[in-house]
Amino acid sequence: GERWMPVTAERSDPAYALWAWCQVQINQSALPDGRVVIAFNFFEERPSNRRFWMLLEHRGAESCRSDPGGQPDLTVEARSQAFVDWHRGARSWRDVLRTGDITVKGPQQLRRAFPSWNLHAPVVDKEFSRLTG
Fold this sequence. Notes:
Layout: H1 14-24, E1 36-41, E2 51-57, E3 60-64, E4 74-78, H2 80-87, H3 93-98, E5 102-105, H4 108-113, H5 126-132
Parallel strand pairs: 1-4
Antiparallel strand pairs: 1-2, 2-3, 4-5
Helix pairs in contact: 1-2
């Protein structure tokens, strides 16, 4: 799809990128043990698309439109386009941090691990592949 339609600010939705990350692009082997809550603020978005949470628990991830409770372990503030570009692998983590397009606050160990939780490409379930392939 990117070949035919460039991903621009008008065509990028950080909520969708976050959902896709949790559904098919999460690196389960890199996730921390226990419950981790990440709060996201996409300050350029309209209010209804500005605040989200990612809940990591039991080696899985869930995107949330409402606060899952508890203090966030990490807080991510991001420009929407930069987040989508990093999420899909078009920009490096180092670049989005250097430019200030994404900032992450929280314990150093979680801040350093955060980018490793994103595989940048969908992982297709073996059973799904067998059925559709």
